[in-house]
Amino acid sequence: MKRRICSYDMAAVPEDGYIVTDERGEIYLCNARCLCIWAVTLATKPGLSEELKARRLVLKVPAGEELVFESIAGLARWASSHALGTAE
Predict the structure, then answer these.
(1) Any bridge partners for residue 29, and if so which?
(2) 17, 55, 62, 83: which could join 32 in a potential S-S bond, CB 3.0 to 4.6 Å?
C-alpha cells in the first residue's frame, strides 16, 4: 500500500488533500496552509534554476478539480490567496 505523506508536515495526507504533479512525479500536501508554505518556499528559493521556475504544474484540489500552472510563482500566488482566504 502506498502511503501519501505531506511534503511539509510529514503527516499522512487525507483523501481530500492537495496533490501537485509535474513530469517528475507527485507531491502530497495536507491542506491549503501546507501547500502555501511549500509553494512560496520553493518559488522564493535563491538560485532556483529557470527550468524549475518555469515548469508546468498540475494541482488537484480537494474538490477533485485540476488546475494547471505554468510556473511555480503562479502556483504560489494561487496557494497564498487560498490559504489566507482571500481568493475570489
Answers:
(1) 18
(2) 83
Using the structure block, give the residue that is written with the C-alpha cell 489566507. Answer: 84
How does residue 88 score in pLDDT terms, banded at 50, 70 and 90?
Answer: low
pTM (2 d.p.) = 0.84
Q: How do residues 59-73 score in pLDDT, each as one tens digit? A: 999 988 999 999 999
Helix ranges (DSSP H) in 1-88: 32-43, 50-53, 72-83
CA dist., res. 65 & res. 61, Å (int): 6
- What Cα–Cα distance (Å) separates residue 1 from each residue in 4, 60, 85? 10, 21, 34
CA 12 to centroid of chain Cα atoms: 16
